[in-house]
Amino acid sequence: MSRGSLWQHVRRIVLCWFMAHALACASSPTPDSQGVVKELPPQDLTQAYLGEREVLFEYHVGGEDFRAPFYVQGSWEISEDEDEGGYHHLQAELERVAADHAQTRKSAANSTPVLSDTLWLELLTEFFHLAAPENPGEGVLVEIQGGEVFVSHTPDGELLINWIENKPADVRLLRTVDSEESNRNSTDALRSFLSRHPELHSPLLFSTGEAQEGRTAFILLDLEQRETVFFDFPIVSHLPTHSGTASKGFKSFSRLIVAGQFSALVKQPATTFHRFFSGLRTRSYDLVKRSKKLPDNNQLIPPLAEGSGMDLEAWEEDLDKIARDKHTTGTMVFLIDGIEFFPTLIDEVTRADESVELRTFIFDNDDYALKIADLIKRRSQEVRVKVLMDNIGSKMVTVWAAEPTLSKRSIDRPQNMARYLRENSEVQARSTRNPWLTADHTKTTMVDHDLGYIGGMNIGDHYRYDWHDVMMEVRGPVIAELRREFRKAWDRAGPWGDWAVFAHSFQHISKPEVDNAVPMRTLYTRTGDSQIYRAQVEAIKRSKKFIFIETPYFSDGELLAELVRARMRGVDVRVILPSQGNHGIMQGANLYVARQLLEYGVRVYAYPGMSHVKAAVYDGWACLGSANFDRLSLRSNQEANLATSDPETVQRLIDRLFLPDFETSKEITELHDLGWSTYFSKVIANQF
To answer: Which helix (H) or strand (E) segment is 618 a member of?
Structure first.
């Protein structure tokens, strides 16, 4: 790749550098008539003045006959929490300042050269050369603020740089560059850069080439203070304000629900009536059954039991009857958090030869979801692509996003993601109908006929960057089970509804073979068939040694009672809940459950932030997927989990998920009086 084309490529994909995952990009800022910084031509920058944790940029604007000074300033500071002797990566927003104020600041600061964007490119190029593998068939992901960059080398040793979603199909994603490796590469790149430019010394102030509101225009590297500061122009534009937008969104959503119910009656008569009577039966049972009474909490909490756990071989045989289904085989790889799952998914989608079948509860309309959408739209020109999203889940995000928001990148959010996916593409996209407000909460993706993903992640920014979650990459005969369930759900959401499900029910689906396959099984929550619930209740009853659970929502009384009984038998019971849930009522229910568990000696942990993980291990039997520990997931919605007793697979889950999360989380030892609102939340949560 030539120097010129590389420069265009780097500017086009907004590259970053130096121990941080930060952004450097954009176009040009000039003051508007109200004095808000919008565009300032970079060529008119005349000088920069660096003071004590502040910098002043001086511009000259105007025509040939008259040029007036114009100043913008940025400042930053280190908080006490950050001041731990490490390297600091800081954001500072530039703002316009008056000339008299600027003159005062200039007198107390040192004039500092602003290094050109060409030098910045040189430094970036050095960094990415160090990160990229030598093998031309392999590349790595470098995570940056606002996106992920895929870097690799050509057979001739030239550097290739792409957004991850635009990676070459013939280059395999090898790994993600972690922070330690990134720090090492950036240090080496800086040393190499300074050796070529001995006239330069710290602090180094770079222009990124162009500047635009909300984007990084300058970067300061202060090696003595161990600081990197990214200077952003202020965000002055946002989505337009429309009074009553949220109200209109909810009205539209209400109409959609009514229309969906009517459509379901016509096209899914069997499903609609089945779900109605199943829900009625469940509600009636809940009303008349006597809830399991918790043991007397005055009893002494026993010490942890010694000895082995339950007989897993006998358990698997009995599970065939409990789940009313047979086990299958396959391989399972755990992908923890969005940083592991989404780059892997993108890599496989770009390499697909035949098909992509994606099923999700929420296909969001944010920046990251649109990135995934645009990728599969592009691939639909070459392979068969089907996307099935839940109508309620995906429509609700358009209601939540109805209010104006401020963003680094203001986007036009599609109000109908299924329609967006179909526009100018060959994507086949469908939304599920939701008879009686039941939802399809399943998250699976199949690529070609031999690779699948299943777990808890939807498609969107939260799942990529913010929330803790897990997906499983599976291969082997188990793929046939996932494809069969996808096909039934796809047919049911189509124009012929239940009729198509019946017509295709006898179609054969091949079972791909794979080396090193281990026993595993799919478990579902289907209408009238709560396999996941029955299996986990029975697993708790049989556990003798330990139970580890992580879930974002816990409100089921029977599971709570059985966990308490297990602890009173001496079982080591531990439950991880999010410290910052995304639903107020469910978070209140979590607190209520946590308090009851603590009273009986169950160890409860608060994961920092939002954990969306739905996983459990019972004496060496693992069960995880899309199902929460609440009524909706266990008895109403459509859900899919995977389960296995394979010792090596279960131990990997414990080592990669549970042990790190126990370490990261804060163990709760006491909960004070939670008040009436928490009890009220628990009552409401029990209905869902």
So the answer is: strand 615-618
Q: Report residue 553 as tokens.
A: 């929502």
Query: Could you read off the pLDDT of 633-685 as tens digits, one per residue?
Result: 887 888 999 999 999 999 999 999 999 999 999 999 887 566 545 544 554 54
CA atoms within 13 A on the CB side of 284: 6
At 615, phi and psi to the nearest 5?
-145, 150
Burial label for 408, CB within 10 Å (0-12, 13-18, 19+), is middle
Let me know the angle formed at the C-alpha of 394 by 390 and 397, rounded to the nearest 5 degrees.
155
Residue type, 449: H
- 353 phi/psi in degrees, rounded to 5: -105, -30
Buried b (16+ CB within 10 A) or exposed e, 158-196: ebbbbbbbebbeebbbbebbeeeebeebbbebbeebbee
Q: Is residue 611 within 8 Å of 550, Cβ to Cβ?
A: yes
Distance CA 88, CA 18 (A): 11
For the chain, helix (H) and strand (E) counts, in that order, are 21, 29
Structure tokens at 550: 């992580």
Over pLDDT 70: what percentage of the chain? 72
- At residue 652, the pLDDT reads 98
- Token pair, residue 32, equals 């508007």
CA pair distance 355, 347, nearest whole angstrom: 14
Structural tokens at position 661: 């999360």
In order, the DSSP letters of 207-246 are: E-S---BTSEEEEEEETTTTEEEEEEBPP---PPP-TTHH
Q: For residues 357 and 490, give the distance between their C-alpha atoms in angstroms, rounded to a whole number.
A: 10
Closest CA to 36 of 197, 173, 214, 208: 214
Beta strands in 490-602 (DSSP E): 518-526, 529-530, 546-550, 572-578
Sign of the dihedral defined by the CA atoms of residues 182, 187, 188, 192, in that order: positive
Phi, psi torsion values for 125, nearest 5 degrees? -60, -40
Query: Is residue 70 classed as helix, strand or coil in its secondary structure?
Result: strand
Q: What angle do CA 537, 543, 544 make, to 5 degrees?
A: 155
Low-confidence residues of the chain: pLDDT under 70: 1-44, 61-68, 79-87, 144-147, 210-215, 233-293, 297, 398-411, 434-437, 497-501, 503, 581-588, 672-688
The beta-carbon contacts of 654-657 under 8 Å, at least 24 apart in sequence, are: 654/548, 654/617, 656/334, 656/336, 657/334, 657/336, 657/470, 657/550, 657/613, 657/615
Quickly count: other Cβ atoms within 10 Å of residue 611's Cβ.
27
Give the neighbor-by-neighbor strand order of the sheet with 95-97.
Answer: 95-97, 67-75, 54-62, 45-51, 110-112
pTM above 0.85, yes or no: no
How far apart CA 453 and CA 443 sit, in angstroms, is 8
* First-to-final CA distance of the chain: 57
Q: Which of 418, 408, 43, 86 is nearest to 227 (CA)?
A: 86
Interior/surface letters 484-508, b for 16+ CB within 10 angstroms, e for the rest:
bbbbbbbbbbeeebbbbbeeeeeee
How many other CB atoms are found less than 10 A from the CB of residue 134? 8
- In terms of DSSP H, where are the helices of 34-152? 99-107, 117-131
